[in-house]
# Entry
Amino acid sequence: MNYLLVLFACVLVNNVIFNQTYGICPFLGVSKKTDQAIGMGLAVTFVMTAAAAVTWPIQHYVLNRLGLGYLQTIIFILVIAALVQFIEMVLKKFIPSLHRSLGVYLPLITTNCAVLGVTVDNISASYSFLTSLVTAFGLGVGFLLAMILFSGVRSRMEGSDISKSWKGLPITLAAAAIVSMCFKGFEGVIAIPSAAEAPELYVKATESSSSGDVVRDLLLAIGIVTLIGFICAALLMVASRFMAVKEDERFPKIRALLPGANCGACGFAGCDGYAKALLEGAAVNRCIPGADDVAAALADALGREFEDVEEQVAVVACNGDCNVANMKCDYHGLKTCAAAKLSFGSQKTCTWGCIGFGDCAAACPQNAICIENGIAHVDTRACIGCGMCAGVCPQHIIKLTSDKERVVVLCNNREKGADTRKSCQLGCIGCKKCEKNCPTGAIKVKDNLAEIDQSLCINCKACVENCPVGAILYANLSGWHRQAKK
# Structure
């Protein structure tokens, strides 16, 4: 029961971030995204617990008995550094995606004062070995909890209307202070029992056996530090041998040829995933943003034949701006399409169309999307076809199409014609005039919405001319790559 009190007290009352203010660097650096926050929190929890398990016996059975307690800091840092290197090997071997997402922050655990502070505090408080493990684990869980909570807070702040003077670090620190005050409310409810209340949680101090000979103590200190350093180095050598990740020597060169957008348009997990797939035989023409130039470079580097890339552009399948679409409410909240979608669907009567808060524009690496009159517009001349806008659109109205195409349907509403007209003046009403007048049968009406089979379309404009509401567009959709070739 006492160990449960210790655990909950460490997570809530003595929270390593919000109460003791340890580990602020990784807390501020990796709490922007939930997946990275969880990964860092789990890594820190493991390192904290392992560090407590290793440093406690070193302190009590080596340093204290030899009168070398003053070596505590340097020895603990040495041990923690070795543990972090071991964790990095494990993640790189078994969870490479998490290893890449943590990036430079994983080595920062070595200098994370939270890990060092917890091990030192456990010794100072005279905790027993088991109590030290429970404390370290609880503080690690508290760190993880703080990271997850604050990642949610920061995600909301990114889409909020914040004055320029408060953007960035100021509002982040202010939010952290507010959250820390919430944790202050747990004080007095749960506390770690004292030595008088639970003596089994503590250990008696080990007597020092220092000889008083300065030269002898100095040589002994050097020997202990050297010995522990050699032990850590040997263990890391063994671990690196069994956990070595074999990489194709060509990987860095192939990876350098890719644009680095990590958009996933190739069908793999970012540019690293595509580079590995290329070495295993994947087609060289799957990088849409890189287009023919990248495909040619890849083919040359891999000794294969060039394969043409089908350049694509993004098209917003909605034309219902504020001038033609009816509004059902005035939204006051987090100005993101994702948040509005979760709340009520859209401030427009049409729940199928563009919400217009610009999640796609924020995701576009080319600044090819803008919001005008409450609707997203794509400048196809700047679009590289990465598809990142389509990935973040909660309405799924952004489609990727070949930039050779000329005819597109600018509507996503699948309600009956009468209901569509009540929502938007330019919405497809499913009248089938386009279908009846198409000479090749390229356009069909399914679920009250016109769809075009581009393989059959001859760009005769018959559907455009016969559409009574103007929901079909004929335009030059040439993308950035085709424009650059001119």
Summary: The chain has a mean pLDDT of 85. The chain has 19 helices and eight strands. The beta strands are 312-316, 369-372, 375-378, 398-402, 407-409, 443-446, 449-452, 472-474.
